[in-house]
From TrEMBL, chains A, B, C, D:
Superkingdom of the organism of origin: Bacteria
SMART domains registered for this protein in UniProt: PKS_ER
Organism of origin: Pseudomonas wadenswilerensis
Keywords from the UniProt entry: Metal-binding, Oxidoreductase, Zinc
Protein name in the entry: Alcohol dehydrogenase
Residue intervals of the Enoyl reductase (ER) domain: 12-355
Keyword Zinc in record: yes
């Protein structure tokens, strides 16, 4: 049986590169030979045991590669094509998918709705920090890479670009809106770019790391606030002349950022939450106007599926945005444990790493 | 100077009927002679000092009456016409109004956004538990009562019908949705009616008072749950075969109802909050799927303005709904203190009272 | 090879009952044994050669039946279950499906968008006026019938209920809207019901056949206009006090109904078109306010897929609506030619026929 | 009585500069002293008698100026402030305004809906090609110009920027959409900018004038097609690999552009019409998929009101877009007849003229 190298979750604080069988595929699946992938903040949560996955699971959910083999039922694609798949791989045929909520796809309940059910790679099935990955429901999930785009140019599409943009989309950013983005990691930076892409006027980024704040300006932030240099809420209210923001995007997953995001909203505004939280959240009575403020609080899991990926690559191909600068470090798959070491500790100004098998 | 009788907030736990001058009106205002009004749960919060208003203010925000006098600038109406005005009286010309958020109208800030700013009657200006009331921005707020509708038939339009329906509207109830409504007071009952009006299939009402549960069934609830008879979340999950509800409407304003509403949502569902809260809210981590459930939490202040009122009366006139049964007791304005006594203690199965000056 | 009876398009003006092989199924398909089906107005267009299909094709797109056999890849269903499938059978995995436009699904073009591509039964593949039908993409399209609903109660779900309701949904009917429905055939009647279900106040039906006008009133029309008794536009403007309607639903497919629907719209209103047209349409300059009226004209193909079907059956199960009265005549499959004869000539007050193999 | 200079419609083909009294203002109005204005394509329609206005009316609907005087009821502004007002001046208090359709504001009918009713300047009341203009409903319509923006930088906000952007907004352009814009006059160019601002990927501009095509590329077009160099529809289908566009924006007002816009739509796509038509339109049966294509056709009148203006200026202030290059020629008000001569004949590559009193 042919084997491959794969980054495997062994136990808390141990993800190691090991040999595994190359995946078998079913009739609706594809086997993709990976050419580039990356490590996500969520993988660090997995590494630390904060998000539970099965021991022995291959980690990773951001695949760029080449179709190695197609299941008997898969039409419209051919072997050898360059493709990506989203971090979230909806089936297309669940009730959740069919009512427009494909990230919450999943077979777990009678009617096909299951929270986070659409996230399969490196969560409920083997992921893509490996030489090969099985892509389920291939017809819904394989998306051809335009010839003129490199692997690194599309590497952000499967997760952080889709997630970050969705922060602006679910916040329903409109032309001329004022938007604040709390935390400028890769997701927050993509949220800045997404807010810009949707027509926001004033875009306020909040962080304290200089390199991130600089990139935020490059991607569209008109103002950047260092939260260590004074009260964030007061600073934003001053920038907005006391009006508050139309949309506040939370991109970290803490009480502090969530609460600040709520406090800077204008009445009728929207808090668009992207962060993965690790404890209960509190909504202060005054910040919520006792329930009478016409507020909206929305959370979003990364949208996936081939049409989403096609659209994101279309934006890149049109030259509207370039996220390649987020790739600050490159590793061979053989050195992925070193990559985890660097990325997990956020050393050396790392934003995203490119891993090449 | 001509005087009138009016229910006035004197101090905590004291609202009394007293004599006051009949209001002067400005060029954009109307003076309305009240023929029927009512007491709202919010007025009880005011009575108890839980919601602060100025001493001496006339209470009440649900006016039905006759135009007594029009300001010099008011066109399109004439004296003697039967009218209602919404509890919320948007100006029409604030930035909030002009971007579709008219309940959050208000002059308080530079750009015209202020939480709850659209609620003026019995909050920031004299209200309508009186013989006369000044209606500000009359052209935006007076709405003619169709001849074939009685005062009591339209008495719910200014607040509870508009608020309750907005719970279903802001929850974006769709044809075939499953909806749960937590607490079946007047607002919750109108939310049931609103969910039905927007095409929900299964509608689950939650309360423990028999009369309310009975009225809920009359207004469209397909299931009614007594929260004292077992775990509410489990009961709703059983009714929905483990799927959860598409929209959960909170109509009380407590942690318990808010949290249960969140827990019964399907992934991607919407918690539509109508209650007035009196303390911070907690969002449990699991109920929020750690931020990855594509949830929506929206709060709403009663929509007002003459177009809203016209539409609500249109629904009543078309025979789609009859809320008159909610009026369980009738009082003269002279006896309003007794009405507060009854309503404040929820005696004698009271739902809504009609007050006639 | 086992055979079955099926209604086959032979040539213009000839649909005959004949013997055909029972369909083979692929791994993603289901074979359904039909228990009830019906004839649609579109089938009459096919019969008359106005809508082209392949000779030898089995006609019919409204299946109610029992799962006879499941493809190897189909999960979540079992043989013997009672099911319906929509007239439109989206794959779930095309780009069209994945961006929320599943009726326009189809393999015909590079990116998976093709007009009417989602309509397969009795159009591009064999339909269901037969003893058995192959349901493609079964996981996306089979929908379980609740035990307490009869075949006839759900017989309208696959097409006319879904189509008629979509007229109100795509018109975005809101609480208190005024709606006009032009032509009260089965689709128009379902549009009336849909407008009512979405909260319209005034609903004006337009036709000239008494039985249809009577059923329209039963399903929610507050006014019914006989277009032979005076100018339709003038009558509707009179009913609406010169204001016009918020939403006009066209349910026939002629210049006359289309144009009248446009002329009765208030500025900013929506013409929701359901009819199948057979010639070019003209938009009169004045009716279109020279392009400055903020009008919306939307057309819709019947929404399908199992989630849509589940929701429609949910509405029926909740007792909100009963369309069974639309079934005015019943035939055995053996007598389907007689059924075509009756339905095609609209004899004997026929609305819908039930065909039982 | 103080007089001023104003460009007046005398009769077909004659707009002349004449003396008129400086306007009186009512309590809700403002008098604005103009500092810059411009001529719109619509004014040319008026000049040619194609759009009827009263003889003696002052033309012009794009005001930039300084508050000279405020009506007694106007709050929140002070004399001497630099302001713009939109071409459309909604009252804020009509039913149309209160249901979100403020461009169709107007007192003309019982319920306050009237096509084009919100367009008053240079249409139903005196316009702003003059030294002074009366702004009705000043509180809803005056919008302060940020200090750092020049007159010419905001000169496009009142009409062409608002109109052009609305083409993209009403077309609901989404991230990654493919958009075609038919005709690249000032409105079409702003539609290109609007499509870009809302996140379109591929943007295809259609025209034949080189300078316009060049500016279109600067404002965001990824492709430009010369309609004289081959079949437009075929060219666009080739660029989109046979898929068609998600949104087609019509910015001229002819059968040819309208029909081409419809023909390049993907199934489910939207034709967003901005042009002012001068004859009936024809919808070809095949282009409309016989009514089964899930198409949307929307028309839009320029959105106005102070919040809209604030947002457009916010976009300019944030540096997202610079429309000043559209101003190709400058004239004194005294020379406005020469400006009409130049602009009306589209001489000398004129795009927009700036007129300074």
């Amino acid at each position: 049986m042919a084997t491959m190298k794969a980054a495997i979750f062994v136990e808390k604080n141990r993800i190691v590169l090991d040999e595994k069988p190359i995946p078998d595929i079913g009739p609706a699946d594809a086997l993709v030979r990976l050419t580039t992938t990356t490590i996500c903040g969520t993988d660090i949560h997995i590494l630390r045991g904060e998000y539970p996955v099965a021991k022995g699971l291959t980690i990773g959910h951001e695949p760029v590669g080449i179709i190695e083999k197609l299941g008997a039922q898969v039409q419209g694609f051919s072997e050898g094509q360059r493709v990506i798949a989203g971090a979230i791989t909806p089936s297309g045929h669940s009730n959740a998918c069919l009512c427009g909520c494909s990230s919450q796809d999943g077979p777990g309940t009678l009617h096909g709705f299951k929270a986070i059910g659409g996230w399969k790679f490196g969560n409920t099935i083997d992921g893509c920090q490996a030489e090969y990955v099985r892509v389920p429901d291939a017809m819904a999930n394989l998306s051809l890479i335009p010839d003129n785009l490199s692997d690194e140019q599309v590497l952000m599409c499967p997760d952080i670009m889709s997630t970050g943009f969705s922060g602006a989309e679910r916040g329903d950013v409109k032309i001329g809106d004022t938007v604040a983005v709390f935390a400028l990691g890769p997701i927050g930076l993509c949220a800045v770019a997404g807010a810009r892409l949707k027509g926001a006027g004033t875009i306020i980024g909040v962080d304290t790391v200089n390199t991130r704040m600089t990139v935020a300006r490059q991607l569209g932030a008109t103002h950047v606030i260092d939260f260590t240099q004074g009260n964030v809420v007061e600073q934003i209210m001053a920038i907005t002349y006391g009006r508050g923001v139309d949309v506040a995007i939370e991109a970290l997953g803490t009480q502090s950022t969530f609460e600040s995001a709520l406090r800077v909203l204008r009445p009728g505004g929207t808090l668009s939450s992207l962060g993965v939280y690790s404890s209960d959240l509190r909504i202060p009575l005054d910040a919520f106007a006792a329930g009478l403020g016409d507020y909206n609080i929305v959370s979003t899991l990364c949208p996936g599926g081939k049409e989403r990926m096609r659209r994101l690559m279309e934006v890149i191909a049109s030259g509207r945005i370039d996220l390649a600068p987020l790739v600050t470090h490159r590793f061979k798959l053989d050195d992925i444990e070193a990559a985890y070491e660097l990325f997990g500790h956020q050393r050396d100004g790392v934003m995203k790493v490119a891993i090449t098998p």
